[in-house]
Backbone:
């Protein structure tokens, strides 16, 4: 029995040093971590929150004073790091708009989420094939590609394939 204990200990140590099962994100990209070579069209995060209010200027000032948001002409750009590329700075825009603006049309709701996406063209093909209402066509700017869709609840959704480096070069205040 005394000789069996060290053998069992060594066996457990060897088993404990083996890679984990196939349920780990390393062996299953997309479960908890996205592979850098994965080209699947998808949402990768939130790019912005837009909503209507009677007095956007006053509300931006309140959020800046009371909650410490860094305010610019459009609202508050939030800065964060990319989980897969930590050296890369990404951005999210919080932005109140004047109630009654056409910005949220054709939705009757004055609220819109902007989703950061990967492979916007492929995602639009998938959405169109699935019968999703596409509001407009892809617009391309230095800072990324945009398109709008409608969700089943009647909200206008903005999809954005970002080029964050443009905002990094421009600089300016950000909420961190």
Residues:
């Amino acid at each position: 029995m005394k000789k069996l204990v060290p053998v069992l200990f060594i066996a457990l140590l060897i088993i404990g040093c083996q890679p984990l099962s196939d349920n780990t994100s390393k062996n299953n990209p997309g479960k908890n971590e996205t592979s850098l070579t994965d080209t699947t069209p998808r949402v990768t995060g939130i790019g912005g929150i837009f909503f209507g209010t009677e007095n956007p200027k006053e509300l931006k000032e309140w959020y800046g004073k009371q909650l410490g948001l860094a305010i610019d002409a459009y609202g508050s750009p939030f800065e964060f790091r990319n989980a897969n590329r930590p050296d890369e700075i990404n951005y999210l825009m919080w932005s109140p708009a004047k109630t009654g603006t056409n910005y949220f049309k054709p939705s009757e709701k004055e609220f819109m989420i902007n989703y950061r996406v990967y492979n916007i063209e492929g995602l639009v093909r998938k959405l169109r094939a699935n019968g999703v209402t596409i509001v407009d066509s892809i617009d391309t700017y230095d800072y990324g590609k945009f398109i709008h869709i409608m969700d089943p609840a009647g909200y206008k959704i903005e999809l954005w394939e970002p080029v964050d480096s443009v905002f990094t070069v421009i600089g300016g205040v950000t909420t961190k």
Summary: Helices lie at 4-16, 56-67, 120-129, 165-170.
